[in-house]
Amino acid sequence: MRYLIIALALLLAGCEVAPVKDASSVQVATKLDNSLTLPVAAPLAYYISREDLQREVYGADGYSRWKFYPGPLFKKAAEIVYPDFFSVAGPLAEDQPFRYLVKLSSEAGYSNLWGTFKVTVTASYLDRQGNEVFKTTTDASVTGANLWQEAYTSIYAEALKESTHRFLNHMAGLNNDLQQPISDEERQTADFDKLLGEMKPAGNGTGFFINSTGQLLTAAHVVNECLKTEVRYHGQNYPANRVAVSRVLDLAVLQADLQPARFASIPANASDDVALGQSVFVTGYPLGSIMADYPSLTMGNISSLGGLKGALANLQFSAPVQPGNSGGPLIDYNGNAVGVVTSSLNQSMMLAKTGTTSQNVNFAVSAEYMRRFLDHSHVQYRYQPLKKSLETASDAAVKFTVQILCYQ
Questions:
Q1: How many CA atoms lie within 13 A of 120 on its CB side?
Q2: How many CA atoms lie within 13 A of 27 on its CB side?
Q3: Which residues contact 377 (CB under 8 A, 6 or more apart)?
Q4: How far apart are CA 178 and CA 147, in angstroms?
Q5: pTM over 0.85
C-alpha cells in the first residue's frame, strides 16, 4: 500500500516531457518498411481545419478551472514530423506542390483525475484528384506532464508519426513508387473544392480595382492564408488569384476574372500625395459577416505622415475602421487612393502599457510605397483625379471598392 501511495504521489507531481525537435526522437509502435528510403520524393501537403486549430480543451480541479489551446501545437507537430519523411512537405496552400494531401482532424482531451493529456488523430490521405488512398486513426496520451504545451506537442507528434508509418508501409505494399520525381502537374494549383468539399469563407477584407483589367490592390494579410480567394462584385463572386505580394509592405495585387466599371486613381508622384491634416475617407466592408452587403464610408484626417515609431511606408489617419476594412482604399476628396488600410493601434496593448486606450489611430501604406510596389511588380495604374468633391469622390469609390472573401 505504501508503494502505491508513493507511485500515485509521483504521478500526480508531474513528469518531464522532453521537447520534440524532430521525428526521430518520437517513439511509435509501427516499424517502417525496410525497403523505404527517407525522405521519399513524393511531395505531401497537409491540411488542418480551422475548427482544430481553434480548439479549446478544459480542465478543472476542486478549486479552479483552466483552458488548453492544443490547436497550434497540432500544427507545430505536423511541421516537425512531415519534413523527416517527405522531401517536400508543407501546409496546403495555393503554391504548395503535392502528390498526396493528408487531411487531419483530431479530438483532444484532458483527464482531471489522472492529469492525462490525450488526442485522437484521424489522417485521410488523398491523391490530387480527391480520391482517398488511405485512412487511419491513432490515439496518443501522456500522464502527469508538467507543461501542457510540451505534452500536446509530444502526443500529436506521436500520432502523426504513427499514421505516417502506416501510410508509407501501405503504399510500399502496393509497390507505389514514392521516389518518383515531382511532375509539372504537382506544381500547379489544385482544385481545393474537390479536395476539401464546399468551403465557406473563413474571413473577409476589402480591396479596390486599380485598372480596367480586373486587377485590384489589397493588404497582404487579407489573402496570405487563403486557399481560395474570391471578389464579391455587384452581388456576384468571382475567383481571384495572387499576382504580386509584399509581406514587408503588407500589400498584394489580385487578378479577378472581370472588367470593372470603375477603378481608382493613384497619385503619380509625391507632389500629388496627401498633406498633414488633409481630409480623407475610407470605403470598405467592416464586420462583413454581420453588416450589409454594401461598402461603408467613414471620414477623418491625415494625423501623421509616418506610422508607428515613424515608419516611413505608413500614414496615420483618423477615419474609423473595423475588422474587414483591411486592404481598403484611403481616399482624398479628388478621388485619389492615397493609401491602403492595413492596421489599427492595438487597444489591449495600449491599455497594458499606458493604462489608457486611444481612439481612431489607424494606419495605411502611403501612396509613395504603393507606387513603388506596383512599379516593381509591373502592374499598371492611372492617375485620373476628379473635380474636388466628397460626393463625386465617394460615388466613384463605392464603385471600385469590393469585398474580398478568404477560404481556408
A1: 3
A2: 4
A3: 243, 244, 253
A4: 38
A5: no
